[in-house]
Amino acid sequence: MSKQDLFDEIEAERDWLTDVSEQLWENPEVALQEHDSAALLQDALREEGFTVESGVAGIDTAFVARYGDDEPVVGTMGEFDALPGMSQAAKAEREPIAEGAPGHGCGHNLFGTGSLAGAVAVKRAIERGDAEGSVVYLGTPAEEVGAGKVYMIQDGAFDDVDAVVSWHPDWINAPNKGSCLAVDSFSIEFTGETAHAAAAPEAGRSALDGVQLLGTGIEYMREHVADAVRIHYVVTEGGQAANIVPEEAAMEVMVRAPDRDSVETVSDRVRDAAEGAALMSGTDVDVTQTTGMYGVLPNYALADSIRANMDAAEFPLTEEQEAFAAELKETLDDPSYAGVPPERRDAAADSAMFTDPIDAPDEDATGSYSTDSGDVSWTVPLGRFRAATWPAGTPAHSWQAVAAGKDLGTAAMLFAGKVVAGSLYDLLTDEELLAEARAEFEERKGDREYESPLPEDADPYELTDR
Ligand SMILES: [Zn+2]
């Protein structure tokens, strides 16, 4: 069997895959409420002959679909949650379908379906006897509120998987070789004594004082942390009226750094500062960790295999799609081409869709974002790439990204499916590649064993209450 046969398999399913992706786009569901979306993908996998385990890690919409009993086990991940308030028609002008309703501003309808395409093509290769091993599709919900995958890891969903190849919509076709920031998030609540602020202030203990003192503590702390550490906070509750001493006040704090150890050290200092603020203000404090994630461990062996598959797979953009992309691109206010190397920026600026595969633009770089894929990359060798879903220069979480997600983005979805399929097939048929990916994973991990960054009693459903 040739690589082209694998790609043709996906092209032959173009109508079916487009229909799945379109159904997800038409019915956008936000994090942890992706019931119809998860069901649609699970049904498709079941019908194809995968065994599906749903409700993984106590999350209704998390699932693992598996085909095969042999080793090695290769996997891909599909996200499918939408963003609140991002409703938008598939038009080159701002026009919500339903004001305030969710929309697929991050292209996860395509993400979930592209990975489905890849898993199905590999499954059929195994079924025909063209490859030996098993393939899993990990349905990973709640990416937009973080940590869905962390719960799935905790539950052992990745335990027997040897390597994972995954992607994300973007406006370039490139593998990832970069890392990103590890993070901890906290919800911190102070409780004081309410009193009339003029008549009996001595009887009151202001919860807002606790919040402000912790904020001040964090400001002083900034000077004494490593340069790369970031601490952000907002006040989520500050009292009812100026003449009432606030009984309740709360804040949300995030700590980020390139390495997990720094995050944990600074997080401990934030916890101490919260205790100090409570002592100073005569209040009680309750610190709840709401999320925790690792930074990404890149895997160059997998990234290089992905890059080779990008050159082999064609990008099936139609003339109509290209014309719509040009129209949509016109609406971008100030497109940034910083995502590609300087010598390619003019080419990107001149194209409606920038579909030429490029080398990883983020080699050795640390992106200023966090993702629960970081935890996956510490659990199993993970290859990641981006596919040109949106017109060149389109930011994620924009109405243009939603507009592109219905029809235009299906070209990237099919392309991504081929690249996932090609890379997983390589892993099943080329022992050396898998060994290399594993060796690199072990080397980059070093002595640090992955430990879940979430507290033991963490509840995934608390994520949506924030
Ligand atoms: Zn996303």
TrEMBL record:
Basic and acidic residues bias: start-end ranges: 441-451
Pfam families membership: M20_dimer, Peptidase_M20
One GO location term (cellular component): cytoplasm
Positions of transmembrane segments: none
Any GO BP: folic acid catabolic process
First and last residue of the signal peptide: none
Disordered as annotated region, ranges: 441-466
Molecular functions per Gene Ontology: dipeptidase activity; para-aminobenzoyl-glutamate hydrolase activity
Residue ranges of domain Peptidase M20 dimerisation in the record: 185-276
Bias type Acidic residues, positions: 454-466
Protein name according to UniProt: Aminobenzoyl-glutamate utilization protein B
Organism of derivation: Halolamina pelagica
